[in-house]
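Fold sample X.
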Amino acid sequence: MNNEVNITGWDFTPLTKSGRMQESPLPWDYHATVKEYIPGVIRMLDMGTGGGEFLMTLLPLPKESFATERYEPNVKIAEENLKPIGVKVISGYKDNALPFENNFFDLVINRHEYYDPAEVHRILKLGGYFITQQVKGNCDNSITDLFASNNDNDFKEWCFDKATVELKNYGFEILNKGEAIGFTIFSDIEALVSYIKVINWLVPDFSIEKYSETLNKVKLIIEEKGCFKSTLDRFFLVSKKIICKK
């Protein structure tokens, strides 16, 4: 495996720019949608910022911008990337007890990060917006099935309908929405290995030596079909807080 790529944060561009890993295109533009809602915002939160890679593409940011990140390897990267541009990085929190006051934010964004709808409702001002792009609970089933992973997928039932009902129940109005069936596509085995090492909960006990037989099977799939596809179904919600209390 001499062609693996060192990934930092959630920045997969070393793989995507070379075409070694690609995601199915989406019928919506998350980036453009967030940019549309930023003007006039004073306080904004990016939930699960990773290394801050996406947030930096949104410059200029609101006057008071915050980012949360729980995954320890990403925290330092996020601080190095975001503190110089005035973003406050928050770590060491609990998802159901975010360290922010009630009615604090005008805009909360969330790309592929877990969220507690009660907490999002609490920290948003009345009339504030929550924009999220989520991956469905079947994400990467192709990988976990192939590797016979014992990965405990707590979110296997997570889907568009469940998220929509939850937000409505917590006093949100849905302004925009979308669903898409898709894949993450790997053109070589080293790209897949690089991905599994970053998304390390997919195959918690992964090592090249332990899974050499399975990796050889994937090599054959790539040789026969030109790529290996992993499930990546996603959905998109833009919502507005219209009720102060549930």
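Fold sample Y, listed below.
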Amino acid sequence: MSDIEMILQKQRDYFKTGKTKDLSFRIEKLKLLKYAIENNEKQIMTALEKDLNKSPFESYETEIGMVLEELKFTIKNLKKWAKPKKVRTPLMHFISSSYIYHEPYGISLIMSPWNYPFQLSLVPLIGSMAAGNCSVVKPSAYSPNTSELIANMIAEYFDKSYITVVLGGREANQDLLTHKFDYIFFTGSIEVGKIVMQSASKYLTPITLELGGKSPCIVDRGANMQMAAKRIVWGKFLNAGQTCVAPDYLLVHKDDKDQIINLMGDYIKEFYGDHPVENKELPKIINHKHWARLNNLMQDGRIVVGGKCHENTLKIEPTIMDMVSWEHPIMQQEIFGPILPILEYDSLEQVIQMINDRPKPLALYFFSSNKTNQAKILKNISFGGGCINDTIVHLANPNMPFGGVGNSGMGEYHGKKSFETFSHTKSILKKSNLLDIQLRYPPFENKLKILKKFLG
């Protein structure tokens, strides 16, 4: 029996005891996870600094704080979410009561990426725990310090029969996917997402895919250019652009292009200084392979802001590119780095067509003071989620689900949706024995007219 088989067997035996289904057990373990995180805050920040050169502020803002907020929200609301919900019963089924129950799937596999290695491992885990599952977490090998910290932290505070962290690279991923899980939650690239989905189909395993794509950012005519520039620079260059919902490219009216470039250049200087690559708070690119890929993407088009790269520190300064078309290499893939290409448009109708001619994006950002134009964009473009007059922050609201559509993913999570994602919804009708209406039983003879009064 392989190591993975042993882990799964122990978790299946543990799940069969029914402990994880107990609501008090779930809340207790969520509180324990919160304690573990708070007790390891400095170690988490150190690991994130080693992997991505994240500052303590950015580590807490985008990783630790978001996980703690998710835990707080889930602990507060779990009793309400888990309570069976009574729903209306049609008169046809008199006397009856109808209920919706939530039950855990069993063993969930959570596969997380390297760009937000702590947050994107722990937030799905919170949903799995809240629903009453046992969990296997597979963090990325590209962020080894954070992955190892997660493994050590979970092993210290939780029974391996309940939660296990598996470390390793591609071979470990492939090995895990050959085994049967009851639910798979994957965050990563579209290419790997297809492999995960294919593997899940072998066992008909339900799955959530949080992927990515090229998320557009549109600046409307008459928008608040100063605010737009500031918020675009913040959202795009957060974590050195290594964010699945980062603005991937900017669509701006041809008459406003020079103004927005100048304003964004000013904010880059204000945020990161005259020499951003020497700024200690600027995150680095995760590894040399991705650094080289990003460096190559800057060779086609015209760099109007930034462009400097330091290979020894794996840093690339915030960069804006002009003279870019859809045929350029940078527009053929998700950039996932601190490079923002700019494309011009003449009308919003042209913008809508350009975006709709391509795979549905994970996020969309529209800066506009015109409510009619806001409605036009929301109505006519399909995308995972986004913001009007801001970037990124929509995913930080636990009251809203987060997820993609089409190529950018399937399924949603965050807050209550995480609990629902990792739960099977079971519908139960409880029938009284006091009365038994004969209408449904044969022989049917002249019952059709009566039936039509109840149905149709």
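Sample Y note: The two ends are 57 Å apart (CA to CA).
Also: The chain is about 40% helix and 20% strand.
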